[in-house]
Amino acid sequence: KKLAVFASGGGSNFKAIQTAIEDGRINARVQVLVSDKAGCGATEFASAHGIPCLRYPDPSVEKDKGLGRLLEELGETHGVDYVLLAGYMKFIPPELVRSYPREMLNIHPALLPSFGGKGCYGMNVHEKVVDSGVRFTGATVHFVNEEYDKGRIVAQACVPVSPEDSPEDVASKVLRREHELYPDVVAALCDGRIVWREDGKPVISTVL
Ligand code: GRF
Formyl transferase N-terminal domain: which residues (predicted)? Predict the structure, then answer.
C-alpha cells in the first residue's frame, strides 16, 4: 500500500512507522511526507530516507490553489491509498477528509473521548491529564472524520499516571506507547485486517 504521512514536529511516530516498514512489519511504503514546516525533524528524516516532502500549506502558493495541488499530488502523483496524521498541527480541510473515507488515521496522545477536541493538543493534553488527577491515560488511534478528534476509534493503549508525574513525564511515557500502537494499527490497515462492523465500528480482526 502507498502511504502519505502528515507531520509538523519531531516526527517520532513517522520514524516508528518507517522503521516498521523497513523491518517488514508493515506492508507498505511512505510515498510522501506532508508538512507545514520546512526543516522539522519529520522532513529531515524523510529527506534522509529518500522520501519526497510536500509543504502544505505552502506560503508561496496562493491559498485557493493549495488544496487542489495537494489532492493532485496525493492522488495522481503518488497514488496514495492511506493518509496517516502523525502530529500534523494544521487544519485538515473537509475536502481532504472526504477524499480518504475510512482511509485516514490519526493518533491522539490521550484516551479519547477524554482529553480531546479543540484546545487539546501537544503538551496541553498532558497538563490537563495531570491536573485532573486521573490514574491512567494513553493513546488513541482513530479514523478521521470531519469532526475534530471524533472519528471512530480503532485502538487504544493505556499508560499509568502516577501522582508524582509531571506533564513531561506523562508525555514521554505516552509517546513511547504510541510508537508501538500506531505501527500495529497501520500494519492491520495495510493488510486489510480492519473490518467495519454493521454498527459502524471498525475492529481489528485477529484472524485473517
Ligand atoms: C504525538 O504525541 C501524537 O499523539 C500527536 O502529536 C505528537 C506527535 O509527535 N498527535 P511526533 O512528531 O510523532 O514525535
Answer: 1-186
